[in-house]
Structure formats: structure tokens, C-alpha cells
Specification:
The chain is globular, with a radius of gyration of 19 Å. About 30% of the residues lie in helices and about 10% in strands. It has 11 helices and 11 strands. The N terminus is likely disordered. A hairpin with a 4-residue loop joins strand 9 and strand 10.
Length: about 350
């Protein structure tokens, strides 16, 4: 696998980066004897966090409805009875071409990349940028599709991923030290270590930042509880969907670097649903926020299955991901197909049969 700019060993080790380490379960050989996804780097103070915590590698977008996004609404579209089919998209991480192809394959956009799915409903689960070549292009596409889908009587919406928080933090706070509990940590350093692309930062504009900062963290649609991260950390931010989303937005509005950092590191925890007791953790979220199944991104399916590829493999096809991974007694659906590790960018219609 080819690493993007700002990843892995290519990152210059300055004083600001010295207090970062690779957690034991994502070291050079990985938990299954293979090298792991580049960029899973945690601040040194995270010893107190449970095994499985790791700031993931990509977080970004949100939508701003500027004049350029306004589209004429077709009155006939509003006359259609009932909502259209529901689709979800896993982590994109800047892979614009792969995203466009996957949306075309599902009949959601046409050959020109324009919405053609009428009243269909489309949810992105977060992590639009970092590692891949065109994160800002991905955000721009999602913002445009949101306007086009609304005009057709459907919708295109997005959740807050940990990489959105990371990009927002890097832009807002840069090299400002944050309270990591030990040593020096900064959003800029974490963003670079986790696959931040200079081209994305150079093209990042105010309307991208505003869109990202307004994204919801949790939603429930047709019995599906949609979140980005496979963690119970959402419970720390409220006992209802509305409370969680309000708390996240208020945290970003206060613009306190330490608060945003704490939010970022909590929403980068992972694997809460995978191991023993995982189904119970899923139920704790479902009991609190509603729904009968959780649908999440964040943790690549090859990690969840223990099929992490190696950069030294002679077979360069990458891990085989055919579709979403249903696990935790059928209560959780994982949607990150591992596009950054030559896996697959997943777009899936729900419900998904077991």
C-alpha cells in the first residue's frame, strides 16, 4: 500500500511529535503478524484508555448551504408518497474517484456525478478526508449532492467523523499545545501523523469548516442507529440523540482546544462491539438512543476480521472486502471497507439481511 503525504515514517520527527507512540496493537507487525493501517498514532497519555483506543486516520466534512448550492425544487418530487430507499456510505478518506464509481454502481449518481436517485436517502458515516488524494473534492461532492437530492425530494446527509474533528482542530488550533495529560500534543502534529494532506489544508475554505462543524454525531433512521465510531463514548455526551448532537456542536462553538481534543480522542476509540461483551455494548447504545441495529464506520472491516494486509505481501490486491460486516450477535453493521488499504469503498442499501 502506498502511503500518502504526512504518514508513517516520512513524517518529520520534531519536538512536537515526540510524545506520540504507536499503540501495542497497531505496532509494526500488528495483532495478526502483519503491518497495519498507517497513521494509527496515539498521544503518550492514552495509557489510561482501554486497549483498542487509537485516534483513527481521517476525519473531516460538513455542509454549508451557500447560494451556489441552491437548486430548484421539482414540485412533482414532493408529491411522492413515503420516503425513498435508504443508503449508507462508509469512510471515504479522500478517494473521490472510488466514491463516484460506488455511487454510480448503486444508481445514486449518473455518469456526470449528478444526483439521479429521486427520493432516495443517503447517509455518509464520516471521515471524508486524510490519506486519500482529494478530501476537499469529496466534501464538495457531498455538499452538492445534498442540494441536488433535496431538490428531487430525497436527501444526502453526513455524520461527524473523528477525522472531521482532527481537520477542524488542525485548522483552528494548529500547533497550540493541548492538555494531553503528558508531554506536548497538538492538533497539527496529530493531523500529520494520521494522514493529513497538505493539498486538502490549502484548499480548505470557511464554508467547508462551517459545514463540518454543524454535522450531527448520531442519528436514527428506520431503526438504524447511525454513528461514525464503534465506541460507547457517545454516552458521555448525552442520554438522547438530540443531547449528544447539541453537546458536540456546543463544544465546537466554544472553540476551546482542550475540549475539542478530548472530544476527538474519545471518538477515535474503537472495537467496543468486536470483543467479548461487544453485543452488550451495542445494546447499551440502542437502549439509550433507540434503534434495533447500529451502523458504523471508523474501524476497517479487515481489522475487525483479523485480515489486515501487509505492505510486503506479493499479492498487491489488498484485503478482500465484499460488503458490510454484520457482527455482535447481528446487532452491528460495519461499513468501513478499508479503501485506504486497498480494500473497498462501501455503499450499501439498508436494511441489510443477515
Amino acid at each position: 500500500m502506498t502511503q500518502g503525504a504526512g504518514q508513517g515514517p516520512e513524517v518529520e520527527r520534531t519536538a512536537v511529535l515526540r510524545d506520540f507512540r504507536v499503540p501495542a496493537y497497531v505496532n509494526d507487525t500488528g495483532p495478526y503478524g502483519h503491518s497495519t493501517h498507517p497513521g494509527d498514532v496515539v498521544p503518550a497519555d492514552e495509557e489510561a484508555y482501554p486497549e483498542g483506543y487509537t485516534p483513527t486516520e481521517q476525519d473531516l466534512p460538513v455542509i454549508h448551504h451557500g447560494d451556489e448550492l441552491q437548486a430548484a425544487v421539482d414540485p412533482a418530487a414532493r408529491a411522492v408518497d413515503g420516503p425513498g430507499p435508504l443508503f449508507v456510505v462508509g469512510d471515504v478518506h479522500g478517494y473521490l474517484d472510488e466514491l463516484t464509481s460506488a455511487l454510480q454502481e448503486k444508481g445514486l449518481v449518473d455518469a456526470a456525478g449528478n444526483w439521479c436517485a429521486g427520493t432516495a436517502r443517503l447517509w455518509f458515516l464520516g471521515d471524508f478526508t486524510d490519506r486519500g488524494p482529494d478530501g476537499i473534492g469529496v466534501i464538495d461532492l457531498v455538499m452538492r449532492l445534498s442540494a441536488e437530492a433535496a431538490a428531487a425530494g430525497g436527501y444526502c446527509k453526513a455524520l461527524m467523523g473523528n477525522h472531521e474533528l482532527l481537520l477542524l482542530g488542525a485548522k483552528r488550533f494548529g500547533d497550540t499545545p493541548v492538555n494531553s495529560g503528558a508531554g506536548t500534543a497538538t492538533f497539527q502534529a496529530a493531523w500529520l501523523l494520521n494522514g493529513g494532506q497538505k493539498t486538502d489544508m490549502d484548499r480548505l475554505q470557511d464554508h467547508h469548516l462551517q459545514w463540518m462543524a454543524r454535522l450531527d454525531a448520531v442519528e436514527e433512521v428506520d431503526g438504524h442507529l447511525l454513528v461514525h465510531s464503534d465506541t460507547t463514548a457517545y454516552l458521555d455526551y448525552g442520554d438522547s440523540i438530540e443531547a449528544v448532537n447539541d453537546t458536540v456542536r456546543e463544544t465546537l462553538t466554544r472553540n476551546d482546544a482542550d475540549e475539542v481534543w478530548d472530544l476527538f480522542r474519545k471518538l477515535t476509540k474503537r472495537f467496543s462491539f468486536r470483543d467479548e461483551g461487544g453485543a452488550g455494548h451495542v445494546r447499551s447504545l440502542l437502549d439509550t438512543y433507540g434503534g434495533t441495529r447500529i451502523v458504523h464506520g471508523h474501524s476497517p472491516i479487515p481489522y475487525l476480521l483479523g485480515e489486515v494486509g501487509s505492505e510486503d505481501d506479493e499479492d498487491e490486491s489488498g484485503p478482500v472486502v465484499e460488503g458490510p460486516h454484520v457482527y455482535a450477535d447481528g446487532l452491528a453493521i460495519a461499513m468501513d471497507g478499508g479503501v485506504t488499504m486497498a480494500g473497498k469503498l462501501l455503499v450499501q442499501q439498508l436494511p441489510l439481511d443477515m
